[in-house]
């Protein structure tokens, strides 16, 4: 069977690429304080992949998570429509989700995100932002009656 048949629309390949970009981003993490590297990679609606890592600061509260670093980069590069994000850290024995702040920041750009929680070996669990942040506050809630 040809690869085109195995991977209709190239989708599984795109997930593999997303997962591998988030693992690569984790290797770039600047985390001298926590020594807890995190990587994220966002798939845009037009098929681009933008990655991010956590960037810590000596003033600890100024640390920016990997997911939010990726969002900031994506917006600067002109993207505001997203379909999926892969996130990873160094934990091997369970799937770890984004922190609450990152869930809220993702929600700013819609609730319709697929989220791939990725282990260091590249295996992943597919979930969604709606599942991770039910009953969310979103931009629509700012609309006055
Ligand atoms: O969703 C999360 C949660 C934590 N971290 C980072 C922040 C900090 O540098 C380190 C430990 O909390 O992990 C992320 O990048 N993303
Ligand atoms: Zn976070």
UniProtKB/TrEMBL annotation:
CDD domains: cytidine_deaminase. The keyword Metal-binding applies. GO terms for biological process: nucleobase-containing small molecule metabolic process; pyrimidine-containing compound metabolic process. Its EC number is 3.5.4.5. Substrate binds at residues 54-60. Residues 13-140 form the CMP/dCMP-type deaminase domain. One of its GO terms (molecular function) is identical protein binding. The active site is at 67 (proton donor). Zn(2+) binds at residues 65, 99, 102. It catalyses: 2'-deoxycytidine + H2O + H(+) = 2'-deoxyuridine + NH4(+); cytidine + H2O + H(+) = uridine + NH4(+). Pfam families: dCMP_cyt_deam_1. Its cofactor is Zn(2+). Keywords: Hydrolase, Metal-binding, Zinc. The keyword Transcription does not apply. InterPro entries: APOBEC/CMP_deaminase_Zn-bd, CMP_dCMP_dom, Cyt/Deoxycyt_deaminase, Cyt_deam_tetra, Cytidine_deaminase-like. Gene3D superfamilies: Cytidine Deaminase, domain 2. GO terms for cellular component: cytosol. Belongs to the cytidine and deoxycytidylate deaminase family. This enzyme scavenges exogenous and endogenous cytidine and 2'-deoxycytidine for UMP synthesis. This is Cytidine deaminase. It comes from Sander lucioperca.
């Amino acid at each position: 069977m040809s690869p085109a048949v195995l991977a209709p629309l190239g989708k599984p390949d795109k997930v593999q690429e997303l997962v591998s970009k988030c693992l690569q981003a984790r290797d770039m993490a600047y985390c001298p304080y926590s020594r807890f590297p995190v990587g994220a990679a966002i798939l845009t609606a037009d098929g681009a992949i933008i990655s991010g890592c956590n960037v810590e600061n000596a003033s600890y509260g100024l640390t920016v998570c990997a997911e939010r670093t990726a969002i900031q980069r994506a917006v600067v590069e002109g993207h505001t429509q997203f379909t999926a994000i892969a996130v990873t850290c160094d934990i091997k024995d369970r799937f770890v989700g984004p922190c609450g702040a990152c869930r809220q920041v993702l929600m700013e750009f819609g609730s319709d995100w697929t989220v791939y929680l990725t282990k260091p070996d590249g295996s992943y669990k597919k979930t969604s932002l709606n599942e991770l942040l039910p009953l969310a506050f979103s931009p629509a809630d700012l609309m006055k009656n």
